[in-house]
Please model this.
Amino acid sequence: MEKKVRVRFAPSPTGGLHLGGVRTVLYNYLFAKQHQGDFILRIEDTDQSRFVEGAEAYIFETLKWCGLEPDESTLHGGNYGPYRQSERKDSYKKYAIQLVEQGQAYYAFDTPEELDAMRTRLRTEENPSPQYDHTVRMQMRNSLTISDSETKILLSEQTPFVIRIKMPVGETVRFNDMIRGEVSFDTSTVDDKVLLKADGMPTYHLAVVADDYQMKISHAFRGEEWLPSAPVHILLWKYLFGLDAMPQWAHLPLIMGPHGKLSKRDGSKYGFPVFAMNWKDPKTGEQTEGFRERGFTTEAFVNLLAMLGWNDGTEKELFSLDELVQSFSIDKVHKSGAKFDFEKAKWFNHEWIKTLPVTAYAKQVKSLFAEKGIVLENDEYLEEVLSLVKDRCTLLADFYEHSYFFFKAPREWDLSAVSPKWNEAKATFFTSFSKTLLSINDWNAAALENLFKQLAEQAAIKPGELQLPLRIMLVGGKFGPTVFEIAQLLGKEETSERITAALYALAQEQ
Ligand code: GLU
Model:
C-alpha cells in the first residue's frame, strides 16, 4: 500500500521568514494538496540559545497571509503532537542511548577547555577549523577511549556529557533526491556530530529524524543548505528505523540575490524586501521589510515564489494557488540556484492587481492608507476607486498616490499650470459649470462630459483648454485617471465644491 503523503515544514523560531523559507512552505503545501496529503508545521526549537520571542507567531501569521495553512501544528492540533520539539524533549534520549548500545554513537565527556585545546593543537593553514571526527575521536575523552566501567562511573557521577554519532570510515552513503537524482557522500569527510547535548536536548540532527519517523513523514523537502547534513540523517534512519521507513528527500535550490546567495542584508542594500512580512528583531530592534507591507498581494507573492526554481515547461507564468496545485511537480524543480529579480517580482504584482477583484486586496490597501492618516470607511466607494485606478498600480502602496485625492479634497493646487492662460471667460465658464452640474439627474461621466462640452461651446472656448484646469481643480495636480471619471466618483456636490474652492484660490492668485 502507498504511504499517505505527509510533508512538513520545520522552521526554527529564530526570526522572520525569508523568501527561501516561504518557498519551502509553498512547495510542501503544493505537494501535499496535489496528493491529498497532510501538511505539517513543526517548530524546531531545540537550540534554546537561538530562540527569538515572537518568531513562532510570525511564522503562523505569514502562512495565514499566504493562504498556506498547515493541517497539523501547535495551533491547528493533530494526532502526532506535540508539534514543538522542546515539548517532545523526553522522546529523544532513548534513541541516542540505543545508538550507543548499538555501537553507532558514543558518550563524549570532553570539557569546553579540552575541545578548545584540541582545536588549537590541530589548527593549521589547510585545516583552520579542526572537527571532532574519526581522525580525532581516539585522542579525546569519550566512551571509545575510556573503559566501560569508567564511563559508568562518570555517568553515575552526573558528569556532563554529549552523545556523538560515530561516523563510519570509508563508507559511501547514497540516496535518491527527488530533484538532484542520486547523491552520494564519503562518510570519512563528515564529523561526529553531537546528537544529544549536555542539557539533555537533542540536536537538530537527532530530533529531525526521530520526529519525521514519529510523525510518519513521507517526503521531506528542505533548503539545499541542509544537503551536507543528509549523510548523518540517512545513517540515523538506517540505524534507528530502517531505510524503508525513510521519507523521500528533495533539497530545494538556493535563492540567489544580485551577488551570491540572497541574504537579509541584500534587502536593505538594494531596497527590496526579503521577508514575507515586516519583522522587527526584538533583541536588536532591527527592522526588516516584508513583501506584504511593501504592497504585494498574496497571489503575486505566492506566484513569484513558485516560479523561483520551477516552471511547468511552457511560457506560462501567471498561476493562481489552485493552478499551482494542479501543475506543480517537485521533480521539475531546478537543480541550480534561482535568481531573485525584484523588477520581475513587481511585474507579477502588477499583473495580479489588474486581474484580481479589488475586494481581494481592499483590506490591505485600507491599512496602507491608515498608515498615512487616511481612514477609509465606505467600502463601496473604496472599491469603485480601486477599480478605476488599479491598472496604474504596481504595488498596493501605489494606490495611495493614484487615489488619495478621492478621499481628501486638495488644499493646494498646481496653479502654475493654470494661471498663465487663465482669464475671465474661463472663470465664468467654471462658475456656471459648477452650478449647472448640480442639476444633472443621471450623474455619470458621459453626462458630465456632454454638459462640459455644451457649456464650452456656448462660451466659445475649446474644451481641450478647459480640461487641464478642471483636473487641477478636482485633484490638485496634473495626474489621475480620466477627469470625468474622477468627477463621477466624487459625486455632484463634491465636484462642484472642489471647483468653487479652486476658483476662489485662482481669484486670489490673479
Ligand atoms: N529546522 C530546520 C530549519 O530551521 C529545518 C530543516 C529541515 O527541514 O529538515 O531550517
